[in-house]
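Moderator note: this is an archived Q&A kept for reference. The question asked for a predicted structure of one protein chain; the sequence and the answer are reproduced below.
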Amino acid sequence: MTTPRENLLRVFRHQQPEWVPVVTLGDGYNRPSHMPASYYQDIQAMSPSRALAHYFDVDVLDRVGGYVEHYRKVGYTKTVEGRLETERWETPYGTLTLRALRTEYPLGAGEPPLTSLARVEYPVKSVEDLRAFAYIFEHVEYEFLSAEVAEHVRAVGQSGIVTVNAPASPLGMCVRVYMGTQTLGYLYKDYPRELREALEVVGESYLRCYRGLAQLAADGTINYDDTTTHAISPSMFRELEVPFLKASAAVLHQFGKLYIHHACGHVSHLLRDFRETGIDGFDGPAAPPVGDTTVAHARDGLGAGIAIMPFTEEYAMKSGDPATVRGYIRRMFEQAGSPRGFIVNVVAPPGGPIESLWLAVDEAKTLSRGFF
């Protein structure tokens, strides 16, 4: 009898699965309302994604941490004042500061609030900051959480697979964490050599991390790049991201591990370039209005060599209308065209009713064994 673990691995190996896997994704922000107390007990001992899978009795694609960063020869501090979180890196070439606002969104009585973090000051503000920026990554060390990851693997067993969170691409991190789109675009246009050299230093640092992650007990990694053409152009992607994705894929494949890339934004104009990266799976192609990539677009653009894990669409899931929810799931199956390389990714929309997710899971489980 095929186990959920073996069935999921068949999908990433581009083999015929016995059924279409149905997995869940949840975190501190993507969390439904009206959850029972048992779910909040579960997330004390396991990831929110595994807790949701346990709650719905679906296949497990666990998402866990695998490393911790330590800075040497760099003075690092983090402070919290109310909602404002401030991080500082002191280097021989100057001090870089990142500030972010934490916001909480209340749910129902007895349920913890949703949380999100919005960066209001980026550490790299001009070309003069790039030397300090590179210095930080020249002096970062990675501690790998071998025992913790091994315990996650043991706990999941044959019910699914375990992935560890890996560094996103240097370009993607510049968009979201280090620079923001304005500074990144300015450097790309006016200081391309300096930007490329800094990103190469960051990339080498990240590849050291990937080499360590590849030797953990997990089945592979997911990098949460959040790639989108709203922040980077196709030419930037080809020049500055594709080479890193190729290099990190090669590291993981050397150790027989999966490489899954997460991007839930507007990526339709990048899909064919992803064919050149060596990734095994694409986590999160999102249909309009959140993204611009339907299941059909993802199939056509990525080709047969990359498994797709499309998200359920947020507004359909929040609608609470059975026909809307079930119809959306059915269209995902229709557009997939085949069970090969296809995983239904039921995502908890922020604050959406758990009742809608039950409809989505029920429809996906029903179709997973009899649609194709």
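Archived answer notes: The first strand starts at residue 22 and ends at 25.
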